[in-house]
C-alpha cells in the first residue's frame, strides 16, 4: 500500500485518493463549439509520461483537489500542494 499526503489532512492510504487529470491541461472552450472528437481527445488522450509528472488528485475523504508531482516509474511522490486559491 502506498501512502499519499493530502495537503489538508496529512498522510493517508492511496485508496482514499482518485486521479483527476494532468495538471496544466487546457480545457477546450467554448464548449458548445467543440467537436465530439476534440472533446474525446481532451478527456481520454493523456500524455502519461515516464518519470516526472504533475497531476491533479482528489482526496475522497475531505473532497479537496490538489496537485501531486510524482515519478511514474519509481512511484515516489515528489511534492503535493493545494490548488491556487486554496489554503492547506
From TrEMBL:
<protein>
    <submittedName>
        <fullName>Sarcosine oxidase subunit delta</fullName>
    </submittedName>
</protein>
<dbReference type="Pfam" id="PF04267">
    <property type="entry name" value="SoxD"/>
</dbReference>
<dbReference type="InterPro" id="IPR006279">
    <property type="entry name" value="SoxD"/>
</dbReference>
<dbReference type="GO" id="GO:0008115">
    <property type="term" value="F:sarcosine oxidase activity"/>
</dbReference>
<dbReference type="GO" id="GO:0046653">
    <property type="term" value="P:tetrahydrofolate metabolic process"/>
</dbReference>
<dbReference type="InterPro" id="IPR038561">
    <property type="entry name" value="SoxD_sf"/>
</dbReference>
Amino acid at each position: 500500500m502506498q501512502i499519499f499526503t493530502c495537503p489538508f489532512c496529512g498522510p493517508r492510504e492511496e485508496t482514499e485518493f482518485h486521479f483527476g487529470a494532468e495538471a496544466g491541461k487546457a480545457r477546450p472552450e467554448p464548449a458548445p463549439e467543440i467537436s465530439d472528437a476534440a472533446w474525446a481527445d481532451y478527456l481520454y488522450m493523456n500524455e502519461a509520461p515516464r518519470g516526472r509528472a504533475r497531476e491533479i488528485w482528489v482526496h475522497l475523504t475531505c473532497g479537496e483537489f490538489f496537485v501531486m508531482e510524482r515519478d511514474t516509474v519509481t512511484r515516489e511522490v515528489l511534492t503535493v500542494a493545494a490548488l491556487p486559491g486554496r489554503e492547506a
